[in-house]
Each structure stands twice: as C-alpha cells, then as structure tokens.
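Q: My labmate handed me this sequence with no annotations at all. I'd like to see what the chain might look like in three dimensions before we decide whether it's worth expressing. Could you predict it?
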Amino acid sequence: MKREWEKSFSKNFTKVVMISIGVVFACLLITQTVHATTVGTQTLYLLKGDKKQISLGKNINPKKYKWSSRNKKVASVNSNGQITTHKKGYTLITAKRGKKQYKIKVCVRGEVDLIVFAGQSNMSGKGDVALVPTLIEGAGFEYKAVTAPDSLNQISEPFGKYENSQELNDGDFKSGSLVTAFVNSYYKKTNVPVVAVSATRVGSSSQWWKNSLVVEASNRCEKAISYLKKRKIKIRHRYVVWFQGESDGLRGETEATYINYMNDISNYFRKKNKIERIFLIRIGRYYNPKALIQSRWTNPFDTIVRAQTNLGMNHSKFVLVSVKAASFDESYYYSDGIHLTQYGLNTLGYEAGENAAYYVQTKKKPEMYDEYLQRRLLY
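A: Here is what I predict for the chain of 379 residues:
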C-alpha cells in the first residue's frame, strides 16, 4: 500500500516540469555530491545519520532555489541543498525556483545486516571487475576498517581493495569478487541493506586463521559495530560468509582437523562479535592436470569438500549456502586450476546470497541438490 506522499507524487507527476540531469546516486562519504534526477524515476537510498549534498547540475547555484522536505523528521534539507537524515522512513525533497522544480525521493534505512566476508584467495577475488554485476541501488555498503574507518562507502569492485594490514594482507591481488553478486541476491530477498567488511588473506589455511587471522578479522568486525552504533544504525543480524579451504586441501589436512579448526574460528567470532552463523561457500575441485598426475589423480580438495559438507549439515553454527563450485569444470577456472574466473565467482555469489537470505528469513538451512555428491542435501 502506497504512502500518502507517494500517492500525491504519482497523481501530480504530469504537472511537474521534468528536467533531466545526469544521475550519480551513491551513499558514500559525507562530501559526496548527489545529482538531481528526472522526477519520479529513482529513489535516493541513504542510511540514518547521512549528510549528502544535492547538485542541480553544472553552473546551477543551489542557493537560488527554495529547498523543502515533505517529512523533516525523516530527512531535512538546508538552503544549500544538503540533506541530513534523521530516522527511518520516506520523504520528498523539492528544489523550486519560479516554474522550475526538482523532486528527489529519499528513502532512509534505519537497520542493516552486518556481514564479514572472510577466507582466502577466491574470497579475495581474482576476477574481472568489468564482468561484475551492477550493484542494486541501496543494497550494500562497505565498511573499510583499514583505509576509511570513519565512513561507509557504496560497495564497489574490486571489493576490499587495499584493505591490507599486517595479518590480513592481499597486496594488489584483488581484481573482482563474488561480493556484489552475493549482496544483490541477498538484498532482493530480504530488502535489508548489507554492510560488508573485507577480511581475507591469500593462501591462508584454517590453522592460520585459528591461530591469528581470526583476531584481525574480529577486530575489523568490532570496528564496524562501533561505527554503526555511533551512527545509531541498528544491526539486525551479524554473519560471516566463509570461502576458504584450498590451502588445507593442498597441505593434506584431515577432515576431522579442519572441522575442529573451523569450530574454533566460529567460537571466537561468536564470543567477540556475537556472530550468529557462518555461511559456508563450499570450495571446488582442483583442476591442475600436472599436479593431479603427480598425486595419481587423487583430488586434494575432496577431503575439504566433505568436511565443509559435514559442517553445514551437522553443526548448528554453520550454514552451507553454496555447493556449485565442486561441480564446476575447468572452464570456470584460470589455468592454475584453483582461482575462479569472474563468471564462476558471480555464479557462487548469486547462489550463496539467495540461500543465505532464505536462512535469514526462515531460520531453516536451505536444501540444495549437490551434483558433486549426486544427492539432495536434506536437513
């Protein structure tokens, strides 16, 4: 059911002088300029506590216009066209001068889901930024604990670029991830924006994570929590999306040991950050013919695939949200047989986001057909 201002807006749409201006909508830093759009075409999504400057176009002085907000309790606007958001809701910002007027619909979101994207190189993402899907407007924001700890930025790719610290350091590795695909898929189902935190280390094993990397990841998460509390933005849920295990496969880690390490990692996140669940993206198989010949065609990742399946099905703290990687053929991988192309990353991101959203909404683990194990995963 439409709100009253939306009804009025639709009714009077044809009466308004429509002036097209280039659209650049972003929920970024406090200095980010937002350009006015054609009347009625889009909504500007902001978070509680945002300040955004509206631009009416090149060489147009905003001070010569009279600015107003239909609902000042949701968001107010000053004489320069700067919007300040106050609480969750909708409003309509108007800039008027004589017969000319610009109208901008504003949606203020008061709550988010906080998600830490953790793991090794396939979570870091060695994809192609040109093939990453376009982020849905208002679907997700990145909290950069290292490079921009006092702001939120609209998610962009490569996600987590240069979020390097002593422990979680990917150098210049990142070139395109699964995060945007995940967030789009998740948001379509939940309609709640994601605040995403990057916490990855290329080549990291579960033992390394258990011994030290989880501490740095937890610290990044805690910084995000503190920042959102300061902004008075409600955190609805707290999760970790986990994509890791290739290093364990290559080093011959046993299924039991991997499960023990993962339980230790989960317990740390739960204790320090009140993380509710870890969403598992199960790793794929190893496509390196020379290495497989040397190992007599025993795929070193199979043990970790079984361990992650076990975790997702039999341990309440873990939810298996993607299993497709184990059925990918070599066309989804680069020549090293480990790192996924952007097509592969997008495929997993969409699957994982949808299944994670299913769990969030139903509190039931999603049922999936596992082509690799040739059976349906039932809980």
